[in-house]
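Good day; I would like, with your permission, to put a structural problem before you. The record follows directly beneath this note:
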Amino acid sequence: MGETGPKEIDPKDMDDMPLLSRLLAQERHVPDLPEYGSYNTVYAYLQKEIPPLLAASSYAHKVELWQEIERIFDHMEFGLQWPDLLGRKMIGIMPLGKGKRVQACFQLFKEFVTPEVRHYLQLNQNVTSLLLPSPSFEGIRFLNSAWHIGSLTKREYCRATHELWQKKIEIGQLLECFVFGNAVTAFHHLAFTWLPIFRNRQMPLYGLLCENLDSLLMFPPDDDEDWVSSARFQQALETCAQKGISVILAVDDPGQRAALQALPGRLLDMVKVLGVEELLPFLQQQDAPCCHYRYTIHLRKAFYDVEREAFNRQQESNENLLQIKNDLNFLSQTETREQVLQCRKDIQKELDQEEQALQKLRQALIGLFQQTMQLEVQLRERSGVDEMALRLPDAFLMAQFVREYLGTGRVQEAKELSLALQQGGFPDAYILPLLVQKQRGSQISAEGLERLRHQSDNEFVRHAKIALLQELGFSEQDAMQIARDIRDLDTPAEQYYRGVWSEHTKRYGTAAVFYEQAYHQGFRAASRGLMRLVQDIQSLPLVRAADMMVPEACLLYGKELRKKKYYAKADTYLKIAAGNGEMEAVRILAQNLWWRLVHDDYWDDSEEEQEARLLNCRKLFEFLSGKYPEDEKIRETLGFIHLRRGDEQRALAVWMACHTAEARFQCGCLYEYDKGTFPQDLDKAAKFFSEARELGSKKAGAEYEKVQAWKRKKASKEKSSKTYRKTSNYSTRTKSTRSSDDDSCFITTAVCRALQKGDDCEELMAMRHFRDDARAADPLLQEMIGEYYRVAPAIIQRIQASGQADEVYEQLWTDDLCPVLRHLHRREYHQAALGYIAMVERLSHQYGVPLQSGIEEDIAAYRQRGAVPL
């Protein structure tokens, strides 16, 4: 190297084995410091109190958390082993190759180490060295792989680093570090770490030393064009970027500067390029006190990850509870509602248990943090450096902590930490009040936003820009460029915009992962990205998006399943879509419920259950009517629902507001007959049928002609010619145009008596035609009709004997036969038959006239199948 150093030691003057034994077997060094006792007290408290409480928590990364805590305590012990470091900035020196750049590196050493130490370092090719100007000791110490500290003479050091290397004994497997205490320097507040070329970077102390750095000086090779992509350089940059450590590249060749442009932005954040001649002024500028003992903030950050995960789980559980609430439970019946309520109770119970465990952990952590702060006070007194002399890595950690406090709603803690960063001179501290202002919903400083808008990016700045995206007026294109370079995606917005970037670069699988993560954390805009992948790019299966519970995907997949006739599965997805505001899904579910009610799919439900379903159906269509006031089909169906519930007044009001053929037709039907809410009014019936006919209804034309015929017939006959006189003996009724089966037909009796009409009135004729057509078309109905005529005489006798015949027949007409006539009028023959059957079954049980064996099986079979065309 051209420098005069100590004379080379003759290998014969030394014995390898005693030296090797000494390197391996030194005792663990315990500094004679009162602070070390405080450290042991804190560590004992940690080991006793925290593990059982941490084990009882539901935190998913307990092992990783405990490893991080142990690492923080390693940092404490590292500071206690060499307390002179506590007030100094740590500068790392790392050559990336051989040749002139390494010579330049050693040339820099001349400014802060003795020639003797320079010579020792040139011998050291594979063990990290700590160059610590210290009045407390001189000479050379070593830390072996068992973390035992010993001392070496200069002679022994030369032997260890030279002769054992020559004999291919890997000294790096024996030693973690050399420490030079006699490296006297003009830099009073700096300490240096020599990171040689050949180094096992997996050794624990190497990581501790690197994490304690404030800056890293790197000397890239001048004979390797591809050094930027080397694993060592990339790994070093990644570590420094994660910890907030600035990187100084010492280069002279402009080509080396240009090579850095190939690096992604997230690795260039902390990189500054200096010429070799600029290094000394840079070090002089850095020569200022620095606090290396802020361990409490690191402990708080490690444990706050537990709080943050609990907060996210709370948010997710609240989303689940809200989903349950919004999942159209009014479509579900009592059993399902009970299951939903039980699900809510289970979720709440889990949250309560987790909060109790977390509260116990918080109480234990208060003691841990208090004892750690007491240790920090002692270390501050020893170092003489105020805690506000912040290291940049610690400042970035605190700034991240502010963001996390804001993310979980702890605004006061965020403000206190923000103030500490401003007092400590953190260059990006002006951003923190902007974030606090947004969290509190107050006016955000325009001056601060303008400054942030033009701020060069680093990890913290990128997070802030995404958080203040709208206030800054950035576009989605800007956002995805920012999110592209964020190393640790903390918020769903960041995940979403990283997904946009991945989609932009056609990495659709990665985009889907980011969109899914963002969506499940409540960033609803991510559903748009997922649907783009499903519909436009077609890189994501629809079923996967539906299983993520994306509302639009659930709607589309539910419709697809309905086409394939997987109705139960389709309803599950449609309910998810409906619960999240997809109105088309609500409409499909409502129409499906009404269809099933019309077709008696719930025939085995109790009357109360069927009424509840009908009420749910009414609520759904009323909801849809409010959402789609222009859709007359919805109101038309709502009229049918009111009619089915027996509310003819509301049915008429709804239909009167509709201008559809069916609505006008149904208005005519309400006035066509003499029973129900409205008295018979053939003029009004004819008017409505005429309007329906003009709107295109063919059946309305037929009804119009029939009503007109009735009007002519009534006008030409005497009112008394067809009057049926009341009598108490129904067995002597006169046969007219009836079939012989009508002799014992209590339906005929009930209608004639209730309506005071003749035996050949329109109502009876309609029922007789249906009876004859049904008997001819359906053998199953033929058997049931025969059974009807078998039990009818006995039922009539018992009605007569009850002394309440008038009231019974009036009730039969109102409750049973009017609905049957309405079904016949609408050609709903299956429903009409079911009405007949239900009436006969009820009267059979009521008056003790049992049906013959086998008929009940026929009735059940008829109910389970659809109608037979007549």
About this structure: The CA atoms of residues 257 and 273 lie 7 Å apart. DSSP finds 39 helices and nine strands in the chain. The radius of gyration is 45 Å.
